[in-house]
Amino acid sequence: MGHECSGVVSGLGSDVKGFTIGDRVAVEPGVPCRKCQLCKRGRYNLCHEMEFFALPPTDGAMRQFVTVDADYCFKIPNNMSMEEASFLEPLSVGLHACRKANIGIGNKVLVLGAGPVGLITMMIAKATNATMALITDIRDHRLQIAKEVGADETVNVSDLSAQDAVKIIVEKLDEAPDVVIECCGVQSSIELAIKAVKDGGKVILVALGAEYVNIPVLEVVAKEINLHGVIKYSNT
Asked: Is 4 exposed, middle or buried (0-12, 13-18, 19+ CB in 10 A)?
């Protein structure tokens, strides 16, 4: 908590340019070292020295004032609320995942998990090139929200085996999905992602769950699945 934030500029360092007191800004909550090879290659989300809001020893933004590097503050337009601006952080997570998936025109996308990140990721997939987007969850009220914000199909997987879930997903999409974006982080969901994706497809792991999980690795090999992990975001 405390890393999805926006604020109003209340003070400026002597060398800061481009901002004035009173500017409303969205804040990128991770500040990398900007010196290592990963940072220099633009993959600063992988920087080993990153200081990220609310990850010890760095405090989060659930306080009245925070000090932020100007490079990681972004002015927001007058028609955007502060609450909406705070959602630019999870939106960046979804955008980074969809970029890694490289969703092509005509692709069908399965998103596992209809929490905030899953919903945003599904919306971004639809806004880019996805022909259809199906999202799963274990709670009907989340799936209802998903339909309201653009999901083409939904599936409640709470009482389904992986085999039965795959069958329903394929029926609803008319084929196996080209891309699966996993936003739950639990073993059963990762297993479903691997079993559901079409041969030669992509599975993008977004959620952080247990350190170790069992997966059907032979299926990953036999289907030539491209299995990608993503962490946070960069240049979004």
From this structure: buried
Report whether 128 contacts 103 (CB < 8 A).
Answer: yes
- Can you name the CATH fold of 90-229? Rossmann fold (3.40.50)
Residues of the chain with CATH 3.40.50.720: 90-229
The ranges of the chain annotated as CATH 3.90.180.10 are 5-86
- For the four alpha carbons of 59, 63, 69 and 73, in that order, the dihedral sign comes to positive
Q: How far apart are CA 42 and CA 44, in angstroms?
A: 6
Per-residue pLDDT at 213: 93
Cα–Cα distance for residue pair 16/71, rounded to 1 Å: 9
- Over the stretch 133-147, which tens digit does the pLDDT of each residue have? 999 999 999 999 999
Output the CA–CA distances (angstroms, integers) from residue 123 to 48, 127, 154, in the order listed: 31, 6, 13
CA–CA distance, 9 with 29 (Å, rounded to integer): 15
Q: Beta strands of 41-129 (E only): which ranges?
A: 51-52, 73-75, 108-112
Alpha-carbon dihedral of residues 52, 57, 60, 65, nearest 10 degrees?
-110
Token pair in block for residue 131? 């022909």
**CB neighbours (10 Å) of residue 105?**
8
Nearest to 128 by CA among 153, 94, 155: 94
pTM reported for the whole predicted model: 0.94
Res. 164 pLDDT band, cuts 50 70 90: very high
Alpha-carbon gap, residue 66 to 36, rounded angstroms: 25
